[in-house]
User: Fold CRISPR-associated endonuclease Cas1 from Spiroplasma clarkii.
Amino acid sequence: MSWKTLLITNYDKLSLKNGLLMVTNLKAKKELYFAMNDLNCVVLENNYTTLTTQVLSKLVENNVYLIICDDKYEPNGLIMSFHNHWKPLTIFENQIKLQNYQKEQLWKLVVEKKIENSINVMGMLGCSQRSLTMMSNFFNTVKLNDASNREALAAKVFFRELYGSSFLRFSEDIINAALNYGYTILASAISRTLVKYGLHCFLGIFHKGKTNNWNLSYDLVEPFRPMVDLWVSTNIESLLANETLHYQHRLELINLLNQSVVIDEKIHTVTNAIEIVVKSYYTYLKTASLTKLKLPTIVQFEERSSLDETEE
Assistant:
C-alpha cells in the first residue's frame, strides 16, 4: 500500500525520469526522486510549481491524488483517478438502491461515533466534567437520522469547550484556517479511497448538496474530524502566535494521515483506517448488514511521520 505524502513548496518542478517522479528544487538546485508506488498523496502549496500532463497522467494512473492549495495554503482543488473499479455501474446501482431507513441507521452510527470521539478528545484535553456529562447525554440520545440534532448540539459544546465561548466556526481566523486545512486533508484522502472502490462521492448518506460532489466524503469524514481538533487544541498557543497557518503547522496537519486510530481493537494509521472504513461501506452496500460498517476510535497521538517535503 502507498504511504508517503509529498508536500511541494517553493519554486519546484515535477517531471518524470526513468519511471520515477523527479522533484527539482530550483532554488537549491537539487533533484529528489520518488517511486510512484510509494506515494499516497502530493500536495502543491504554491502557484509556481510546474508539471506536465504526463506527470498528471502517471499520478492518477498510480492512484496518487493531487491536492492543490490557494494563496492562503487552504486546499481548493483535488485531482484523482476515476478508473479504479471494474464494475462501476454495479456499484452505482447499489448506491442508488440504498433505502431511506438504511441511510437513517447509518447516519445514527456515524453521529454516535463522532460524538464518542469528541468525548475521547475532551477527556484527553482535561475538559470540564459538566461538558463531558452533556456530551455523554447527547451520545446516549442519538435517534435515527439524528432526528433530534444531537450532532449539532454536541459540536456547539465541543467547540466552546476547546476554543472558548466566543469561537465561531467559519470565521476568518487562524483556528478555523487550521481546522479547514486538516478537515480537507482527511476528506480528500477519503474521496480518493471512495473512487478506488468505484463509489460515487456525490451520493451521500446524510449530506445531499445538489452542487456538492463530495457528499459521501463529508459523511464518512465525520468520525475523523475530532482528531484535527485535538491537534489544533494541543497547538493552540503556537497557532495564535501566527497570523497565517505556518509551514510546520501544515506539515503536522498533513501528518495526521499517519497517526493511529483503533478499529476492532486493532491499531491502524489513519490512511489504513480510511481504507477499512470505505471498504466496510462498500461491503454494507452489498450485504445491508450494519455490523459490516467499521468506524475509527481516536486515541492519543504518537510521534510518527511518513512525510517527504521539499522546503530547504
